[in-house]
Amino acid sequence: MSPILSEAEPKELRDESDFEAICSDSDYISICGYGSLLSERSARSTFPELINFRIARLNNIRRVFGIIAPIFFEHGIAKPETKEISSLFAEPCEGETIIITVFEIKKSEIPAFIQREFAYRFLAVLPETLDGKLYHKPAVLCSRSTDERFFQVKCKGYGEMISYLVASIFDTVF
């Protein structure tokens, strides 16, 4: 098991150096897929050079539809009349288990990954095989953020000004 985290405690990755720390001596980093990235075809459309695509399990995590993503409106996917406007996120939840995919991307792709998934909170987690064997290396999971965390961590110095302009991003319930 990785000395960086335990199975029960996902570790938040706040910046590129945190991502680098879980790569250890490898030129690759593991990514968890739980929505569209469950499909290898979809994953390859985002990460064409990915390797080692496989199915795994992640304990004490659940999937929830709950982030309103502008991309849904930009691409005409959203249906406001039926409230089909939410994208999927994962969050820690004791006792829950989800099926995921795990694959590796080049370490050099980390900055683009962080930029593309800007609104998410990144967690280092330890998936397990479908046989119940823990992975030895952590993988990155995109998780739900909160307004407070988003303004503090992602907006770095502009959080107070942005929170004045925008009432809520993650904490609004429709």
From TrEMBL:
<protein>
    <submittedName>
        <fullName>Uncharacterized protein LOC103497825 isoform X3</fullName>
    </submittedName>
</protein>
